[in-house]
């Protein structure tokens, strides 16, 4: 019997195969990238590789220790392409072996000539204790020993912002500090006391006159408190008696846990507290503009390895996976750095529990 099937008829499956063949032939005439995009559609965007990490230059500007000088460790981070980066303060690896914290504010042979009240490293230690304990009754009164004056700027059960006037601070600068719509003049330092869970502590100190920050996570059990240590600078870093950032105004948004920094030479930064627990404190920074000067720095004291805020540096570059590691005083300048760690491998005076610092997440606009 003759077939009733039209001579040009193709079974459905074969027809689909033919259409795919025609499509593939058409795609083969495209450039490889265009063909891949056409075939994969939105799946390509979902599997696209992350952008390469942005590397920065780290310079070691440290000088030999001196009883009469300021912090002698100085590391600067430089890249005009950086718009965002992250700083983490992490408890040192040995912190859980500690049962108590006791600071000894003196270095080998230096006694107390480097008056703690006049230095950013020592100026806040006694005041921090008062803020951590929530003591607000002494607002407006000067401390008999140091002349420091304390004022509560904002207070809720889980957040307190405290301002200080420090007559012996090493530098004077008029930097208004604003919480919401309320601005306060004449402060030298601002502290943040936070109690996100069942433990509270002063976790951030910001010195307005020189733009330096000191950071620490919440104290882990069984420690009632831990120490601040090295100073961190965020913004266009310049040099006077020591490294500093010149601020024009600072604002703080309590709900967002975010600082807005306005710099004296122009430009702004938003510094937000994005993580806090008994292991780590994290700050994320975003700049309005790139900088030809260093965009961040670290200041610390070093006498010998047993008496230092920072003793070791480790770093990773974009071109190599293994870490480089060196004593902080002999650390060579490094380029293309995507991660920088500065800390201690063993307890050292004066601040046994002071945190390690990690700089990472460098990114452009």
Walk me through what this model shows.
Helix content is 11%, strand content 38%. The chain has 365 residues and is mainly beta. The protein has one domain. The strands form 3 sheets. It has a 20-stranded mixed sheet that branches. The chain is globular. The model is unreliable at 1-45 and 112-137 (pLDDT under 50).
Key words describing this protein structure:
4 helices, signal, 38% strand, 365 residues, TAT_signal, mainly beta, 24 strands, two-stranded antiparallel sheet
**SS class:** mainly beta
The coarse silhouette is globular
Q: In terms of per-residue confidence, which ranges show pLDDT below 50 for 5 or more consecutive residues?
A: 1-45, 112-137
With helices defined by DSSP (H or I, 4 residues minimum), what is the helix count? 4
First-residue to last-residue Cα separation: 76 Å
- What's the β-strand tally? 24
Strand content: 35-45%
What is the assembly state of the chains in this entry? Answer: single chain
H/E element order: HHHEEEHEEEEEEEEEEEEEEEEEEEEE
Number of individual domains: 1
Largest sheet descriptor: 20 strands, mixed
Radius of gyration: 27 Å
**Into which percent range does the helicity of residues fall?**
10-25%
| Average pLDDT rating | 79
Short summary:
Helices cover 11% and strands 38% of the residues.
């Amino acid at each position: 019997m003759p077939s009733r099937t039209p001579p040009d008829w193709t079974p459905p499956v074969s027809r689909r195969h033919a259409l795919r063949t025609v499509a593939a032939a058409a795609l083969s005439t495209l450039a490889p990238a265009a063909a891949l995009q056409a075939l994969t559609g939105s799946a390509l965007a979902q599997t696209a590789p992350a952008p390469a990490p942005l590397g920065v230059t780290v310079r070691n500007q440290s000088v030999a220790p001196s009883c009469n000088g300021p912090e002698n460790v100085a590391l600067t981070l430089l890249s005009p392409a950086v718009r965002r980066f992250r700083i983490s303060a992490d408890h040192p690896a040995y912190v859980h072996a500690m049962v108590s914290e006791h600071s000894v504010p003196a270095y080998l042979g230096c006694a107390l000539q480097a008056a703690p009240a006049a230095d950013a490293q020592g100026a806040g230690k006694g005041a921090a204790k008062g803020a951590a304990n929530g003591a607000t009754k002494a607002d407006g009164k000067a401390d008999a020993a140091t002349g420091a004056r304390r004022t509560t700027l904002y207070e809720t059960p889980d957040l307190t912002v405290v301002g200080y006037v420090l007559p012996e601070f090493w530098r004077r600068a008029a930097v208004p500090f604003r919480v919401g719509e309320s601005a306060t003049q004449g402060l030298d330092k601002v502290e943040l006391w936070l109690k996100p869970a069942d433990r509270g502590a002063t976790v951030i100190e910001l010195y307005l006159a020189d733009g330096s920050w000191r950071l620490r996570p919440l104290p882990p059990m069984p420690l009632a408190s831990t120490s601040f240590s090295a100073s961190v600078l965020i913004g266009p870093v310049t040099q006077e008696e020591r490294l500093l950032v010149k601020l024009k105004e600072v604002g703080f948004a309590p709900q967002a846990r975010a600082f807005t920094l306005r710099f004296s030479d122009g430009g702004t930064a938003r510094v937000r507290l994005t993580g806090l627990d008994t292991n780590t404190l994290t700050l994320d920074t975003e700049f309005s503009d790139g900088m030809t000067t260093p965009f961040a720095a670290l200041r610390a004291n070093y006498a010998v390895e047993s008496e230092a805020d920072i003793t070791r540096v480790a770093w990773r570059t974009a071109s190599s996976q293994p870490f480089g590691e060196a004593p902080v005083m002999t650390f060579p300048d490094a380029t293309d750095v995507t991660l920088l760690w500065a800390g201690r491998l063993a307890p050292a005076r004066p601040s046994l529990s002071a945190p390690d610092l990690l700089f990472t997440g460098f990114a452009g606009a």
